[in-house]
Write the structure tokens for this entry.
Amino acid sequence: MASASHISGQRSRLQDDRRLLVRYHRHGDQAARDELVERLLPLARRMARRYKRSDEPLDDLVQVATLGLIKAIDRFDPARETAFSSYAVPTMLGELKRYFRDNGWAVHVPRGMQERVMAVDGAVRELSRSLGRSPSVPEVAEALKTSAEAVLEAMEASSAYDAVSLDAFRFGEDGEGETYAESIGFDDERFDLVEYGATIAPTLQALPARDRIVLHLRFAEDLTQAEIAERVGVSQMHVSRLIRRALDRLRTVAEATG
């Protein structure tokens, strides 16, 4: 329970905020506006830290939240009976969400999906604090009154928020280790098969149809002899003999025409 001194201090701060707002809006006192911004900057910083992503510069988010604070000061009507902070917080949050929506995505994602991603992120943070662990997908869905499929779609879409250049290095400083492109690239030996196939195509035509089918299943579709036997309707041993005989015929025809 808050102490009487704390409540009194909070009430005093709220009254000071209102006096500054009145001076600014009714008398055009720019100094009162500047003072109010300085007084409430800690609130903007807290909002920025609350919605910070791991790779998002905090200074940028503080600037966005501060812009929301200034807009709230300019738009707030001192005649309202509500506390200024109850108006300023949603305004700053709106600016932060707009920033993430418009500037934070590496690829285009529909606005509705972006908002769903933000809602899922917020629900995960809140549930993690209240549960003391990472929430499950059904728990997040229940908190947001939506389906588990919608939550999973948002989690998958959140990967579009960041992009890494294929030329970036995976480990260490620039110039050290391998790049992402090098880590996912490989030599596809099937390119050689295209050339080989074009070379032996005339020779293959000299084989019986069943031999050509068996060779295609074995070397083009990479089936096992057992799978070929099931496909063709013969025994595995017979498939082995067919492959060996077909290769011998190919070799003979190639030597004769070479």
Remarks:
- The chain has a mean pLDDT of 76.
- The domain at 190-257 is CATH 1.10.10.10 (Arc Repressor Mutant, subunit A).
- DSSP finds twelve helices and no strands in the chain.
